[in-house]
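Regression test case RT-17, inverse folding.

Input:
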């Protein structure tokens, strides 16, 4: 029934793995990214590199990989005083959430993605959210996204599916998934070409990829890659 998917593709490790997952399952896959004034805007440049390298390295996926969409959501950055949209030290708020939480971000992303999918005749949305390795963001929770799936389907009056293949995986298992989907070649594309660092450092290359090595995103990625590498050896 569902043959086309639209992947929320930021240019990071998780969304790149989800893109490979979708390409392995659906006949046609399109991608969508969002420019919302993020501090780590370099991820938008990485998106283009990853897409091209996937086409070059995996011809069977290239035939399925369709149009890329990039939406300007600068207003979200304007109303968000967070460490992801401003040059702030990353800390935890009284609520217990880190100040990297951008309120409503995933809700807005999926709503715009659903509108694009509706116009493109696509019934599946794919996102890299998870509850295992995350900072407690409420809009990454499985319950939130299941509820949103129902709401968007009702609002568009059509069957819509939100897929979150990483929901119950940690970062090590995400690397394992990448290897199972595309072998060492895909692992290397994700390691070398994606970007996850919150502060936008894409000049320092570590064993696990580019990043500052100190922010929560880098720490998670490094820890996961180390566990993955030790398991492979």
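Golden output:
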């Amino acid at each position: 029934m569902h043959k086309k998917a639209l992947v929320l593709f930021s240019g990071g490790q998780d969304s790149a793995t989800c893109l490979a997952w979708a390409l392995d399952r659906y006949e046609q896959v399109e991608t969508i990214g969002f420019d919302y004034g993020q501090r780590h805007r370099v991820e938008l440049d990485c998106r283009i590199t990853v897409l091209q390298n996937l086409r070059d390295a995996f011809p069977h996926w290239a035939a399925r990989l369709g149009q890329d969409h990039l939406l300007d959501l600068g207003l979200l950055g304007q109303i968000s005083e967070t460490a992801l949209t401003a040059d702030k030290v990353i800390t935890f708020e009284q609520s217990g959430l880190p100040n990297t939480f951008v309120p409503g971000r995933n809700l807005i992303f999926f709503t715009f993605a659903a509108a694009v999918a509706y116009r493109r005749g696509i019934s599946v949305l794919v996102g890299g959210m998870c509850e295992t390795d995350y900072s407690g963001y409420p809009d990454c929770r499985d319950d939130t996204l299941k509820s949103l799936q129902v709401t968007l389907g009702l609002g568009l009056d059509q069957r819509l599916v939100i897929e979150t293949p990483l929901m119950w995986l940690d970062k090590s298992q995400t690397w394992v998934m990448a290897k199972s989907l595309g072998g060492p070649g895909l692992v290397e594309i994700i390691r070398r070409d994606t970007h996850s660092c919150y502060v936008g450092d894409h000049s320092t290359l570590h064993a696990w990829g580019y990043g500052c090595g100190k922010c929560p995103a880098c720490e998670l990625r490094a820890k996961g890659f180390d566990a993955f590498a030790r398991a492979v050896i």
